[in-house]
Amino acid sequence: MIIKFLGTSDAQGVPRINCNCQVCTVDDGYNWRRRPSVLISYDNKTALLDVSPDFKQQYIMHHNHGLIPDTVLFTHAHNDHIAGLGDYADLCFWNKVNSRIVGSPEVISQLVQRYPYLANRDSIKFFGCKEFTLGEWYIQFVKVNHGHNGYSYGLVFSKKDYRWAYVSDSFNMTEEQLSYFLNLDTLILGTSYWEEKTQKDKRSVYSVTEAFEIKEILKPTKMVLTHLSHDINADIMSKQLPENVFFAFDGMELQF
């Protein structure tokens, strides 16, 4: 399995609108990020993990004329993770590709409410579930706290002796929630700021410094940080990361 990060920003994207900070005004490519989407390649097939508002541009830039994904896995129904669903559905419709929309039952219910016209298409099937498979990979949807923004789902992928997880939007996870992500080979975790100053009851995503603490608890072999805001200048801050901790960037690939 190979995954490619199509987008690695927080909900506002980088650069932000009307922002004159250093990261938003210097076009170095590495620090400019689109909203969260991931392309998954496995067994001569492709799937998506979330479909951001920037999906069309992401797809053209990183996968144009590639194998069209026939499955989309959703972490939660917030705008920055689902607003490209209409563009994805049109891509499938015009190319006569049948597709599966997969997520927890409550997330699927929200998607059907927001996109009722898609529920009437014979070529699109919605699957509300807590477990799913992609080829030989078993996927578990784990409900996690998303702080002030409610909840999200972390996805754990398992195959034989390898386990990795994608937890893009989480904050203040309980011990029980954290236990699902113990001793992973790779943990992909959302961290919007290097060190968050907002009061705790208003926050929704971990900071980079808090990710270091989570790494000590969960002990993944590798940790990749995504959902990065304009606070993260990866060119500079990557030098401050501990061993086996990395910032994701748009177009980055990982092979499992």
Automatic annotation (TrEMBL):
Gene3D superfamilies: Ribonuclease Z/Hydroxyacylglutathione hydrolase-like. It catalyses: 3',5'-cyclic UMP + H2O = UMP + H(+); 3',5'-cyclic CMP + H2O = CMP + H(+). InterPro entries: Metallo-B-lactamas, RibonucZ/Hydroxyglut_hydro. Residues 34-227 form the Metallo-beta-lactamase domain. One of its GO terms (molecular function) is hydrolase activity. The keyword Repeat does not apply. SUPFAM superfamilies: Metallo-hydrolase/oxidoreductase. Counteracts the endogenous Pycsar antiviral defense system. Phosphodiesterase that enables metal-dependent hydrolysis of host cyclic nucleotide Pycsar defense signals such as cCMP and cUMP. This is MBL fold metallo-hydrolase. Keywords: Hydrolase.
